[in-house]
Amino acid sequence: MYRFLLSRQWVILTLIGLVLVPTMIELGFWQFHRHERRVAQNALIADSVAAKPVPVEELTSPGHTVPRADYWKPATATGTFDTAHEVVVRRRTNSDDRVGVHVLSPLVLRDGRVVLVNRGWVPAAADQHSFPAVPPAPRGEVTITGRLKADETTGASGIKDLKGLPARQVMLINSAQQAELIGREVLGGYLEQIAPEPAGNTPELIPEPDHDSIGAHMAYAVQWWLFTAGVPVGWVILVRREKRDRAAAAAGADTSGAPERDPDAIQATPSR
Length: 272
Fold this sequence. Notes:
By secondary structure, the protein is an alpha/beta fold.
């Protein structure tokens, strides 16, 4: 009755189904884990940005790698901006998705060490080679508050650290690189300035990271699992249809092969 399942066509179809089921289950769990990571990150961001600011020296030090648990935590720093070693970070977008640069200014602390401060976004120069117009950093001793971020790397950000860039332009915000250029001890990581507001609202301060959106990962996970359930259901439907079609074909063959009675012979038969 089901011997057709041993045909080459059905063996291949069954094997494809057996491969698809675990593959789609795994894809569903992959999306589910992405959903879990997004939820966990949102919770981390929300807790961090709501924390009370502490002196930056309590969270990092020269050569320190900022752990994920400290990402986005507010920190204060008091010192004087070293505008001579100010650089811009290329190919950064603002809240309107306009491409420009971030202004990275070293803040010399009272003990002589430096913390890097991302003062915000400004438009890039028209020719991409000249240094853009950057609003001057405040003079004298200042106290700023910012969100602590880890040093950027190509592996973590996907941004290539290009060489041969114009003077005072970089691709990544990295404390070790800037320590070599400045010639001072630089605290690990950097601060995204959130206060005080710059005069004229320029540079544009970096907006608070999104911690409300969870994306569509959970929906994708459910979708993959529904596809998984659909494979055996579809296989059964196809098997039953094939069986029905074969039975109908066999019945049709039997009917067409039966001998037909001659109408003339029927008429010639005398009635009783």
